[in-house]
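Usage

Read records sequentially. Each one opens with the input sequence:
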Amino acid sequence: MNNVYGYEDIFNQLIKNYKNNNLHSSLIFYGSKGVGKRTFINTLILKILEINFNDKQYEHHTNLFINNVHPNIKIIEKEFDNKTKKLKSSISIDQIRNVKKFINSTSSINKLNKFIIIDSSDELNLNSSNSLLKTLEEPNLNTYIFLISHQLSLLLPTIRSRCLKLKFSHHNFENFKKIIETNIENIKDTEIKFFYDISLGSPGNAILLYNDDLNDIFEMILENLSNNEINTSKIKFCNYLSNFDNEKFLNVLSLFKTILIFLNKVKSEVLTPENFLSLKFKNLNNVSKLLTKQNIIDRFEFIVKNEKDLLDYNLDKKLFMLKLLTR
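and closes with the structure output:
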């Protein structure tokens, strides 16, 4: 149950429904990315396996599930494109057609229902969405479809209407702290407060930021955002960031956007230092005084407009950052 901090009531109700053969066949788990929807579903399925099998069988089925080879559990995610060496942009119609085959095939474990996890359903294209809709319209009594959505409005209204929707809200600090301390050893309380503020209470996003050592980069960003002049410190900072691989560089840009959004809210007095737990975030008030509102907006729009081209065309990261920081 440690993996469902903050969502215990939802978890207990779903397990109760399952035991009473009253679990809805299609469910949408929706909420901000990183709050723990996939972890929740994994824990739910593990509990169902525990209900159905004795200790030795449970261990066997758990290993199959963890290694994504369980014959009764199918996970649908964006596939890797061997030609481009990148993840495909969407979940394809062929993947959803394979879901239909999976549902209709004879199960090798008759004692257990079938489970399908689509992570995330936001990444369905129009064709795959329509194909999934047909599956939802003809539910199978022995099959459960779990859809993960980070932005519910991206799903077709007809898909939303055929599913039970479960909202996963942001965590309060107490639950956030429990999750972070479970996943990161010896983390300081000051760091937990910082990651709570920067991730908006999303443990998954916080762990990614922690793993990328973005705690110190936060202060560097504030220092270099405070003016639009080119100086030695700013050039050194841009050189430093330009050596990051694409994935980490994108995480840095995401951090930039988050900071700019917060600066804009502080500038507009929507947020005050009292809204933050971390002392680092309280410094946003001082930085916001050094920037104009238009300057903040211009920098945010520059990232949004150009970040895709930066990586698609392998443009110069250092030049990109210099343009961003001197706007």
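Summary fields computed downstream for this record:
- The two ends are 49 Å apart (CA to CA).
- The CA atoms of residues 135 and 323 lie 49 Å apart.
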